[in-house]
């Protein structure tokens, strides 16, 4: 072994060629799996995109740094699946730019949070977590109920997401501001377009408890209630594994 190295070091070209060969092994191991990424990532025929209101909520989630304490990725370990539900699949994050998997859990994982609590619970909890969980160390986000949601730029947000691969239609982009209003105002004329463009299962209700002008709370709660519900593929495939 040392004899080989000794001889190699005396040949500049041989040494360089050998270094390139050894270094490229690591590169190959990293790059090769990406060639099969289309087969590796599961398919989810039933997957829908986030509505403009949910996109706005997701932006607030990022703005407020919720990801610093909450992950959105359930690992394949037994205790995680027992606690949070089916483990996360790659396809479930495919419309998330950036992904919010997180690396720290001061609070629980939120990947399957949708429909776990009522809107009312979320509003009270976000306004002051200690009203519901006395020992909670989560900060109070009191301004969410007070601050008006900005919606005039939502079309641009959808357009930016389309540029990185989220399949928004021209119709969805053109109606983004209108749909954001309609999703939180079920009695308004704008509401019908939301189900038309995003599917009949879309949540359409006054998320912060009041119809009328939108608040940041409307958007954030709309987003929290759809977590884990863009597709049911994790439930159906993992149910099949158990049986
Ligand atoms: C400093 C860390 C921290 C930050 C930042 C934080 N949380 Fe939490 N969160 C917690 C802790 C701890 C809990 C568990 C106690 C509780 O329910 O209040 C929790 C619980 C929750 C729950 C209930 C989850 C469940 O399954 O019971 C939700 C929903 C939630 N947080 C949402 C948010 C959102 C949205 C934000 C950003 C606006 C946020 N959190 C920011 C620490 C944090």
TrEMBL record:
Residues 52-228 form the Cytochrome c domain. Gene3D superfamilies: 6.10.250.2250, Cytochrome c-like domain. This is Cytochrome C oxidase, mono-heme subunit/FixO. The keyword Endoplasmic reticulum does not apply. Keywords: Heme, Iron, Membrane, Metal-binding, Transmembrane, Transmembrane helix. It comes from the Bacteria. InterPro entries: Cyt_c-like_dom, Cyt_c-like_dom_sf, Cyt_c_oxidase_monohaem-su/FixO. The chain crosses the membrane at residues 12-35. The keyword Transferase does not apply.
């Amino acid at each position: 072994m040392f004899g080989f190295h000794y001889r190699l070091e005396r040949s500049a070209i041989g040494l360089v060629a050998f270094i390139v060969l050894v270094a490229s092994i690591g590169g190959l191991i990293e790059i090769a799996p990406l060639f099969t990424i289309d087969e590796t990532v599961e398919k989810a025929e039933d997957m829908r995109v986030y509505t403009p209101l949910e996109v706005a909520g997701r932006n607030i989630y990022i703005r407020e740094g919720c990801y610093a304490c909450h992950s959105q990725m359930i690992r394949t370990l037994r205790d995680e699946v027992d606690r949070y539900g089916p483990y996360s699949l790659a396809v479930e994050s495919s419309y998330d730019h950036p992904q919010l998997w997180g690396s720290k859990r001061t609070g629980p994982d939120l990947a399957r949070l949708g429909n776990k609590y009522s809107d009312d619970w979320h509003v009270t909890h976000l306004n002051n977590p200690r009203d519901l969980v006395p020992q909670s160390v989560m900060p109070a986000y009191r301004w969410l109920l007070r601050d008006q949601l900005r919606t005039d730029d939502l079309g641009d947000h959808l357009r930016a997401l389309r540029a990185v691969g989220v399949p928004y239609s021209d119709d969805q982009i053109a109606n983004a501001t209108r749909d954001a209003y309609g999703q939180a105002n079920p009695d308004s004329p704008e509401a019908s377009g939301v189900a038309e463009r995003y599917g009949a299962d879309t949540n359409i209700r006054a998320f912060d408890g009041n119809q009328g002008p939108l608040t940041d709370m409307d958007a954030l709660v709309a987003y929290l209630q759809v977590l884990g519900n863009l597709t049911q593929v994790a439930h159906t495939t993992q149910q099949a594994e158990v049986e």
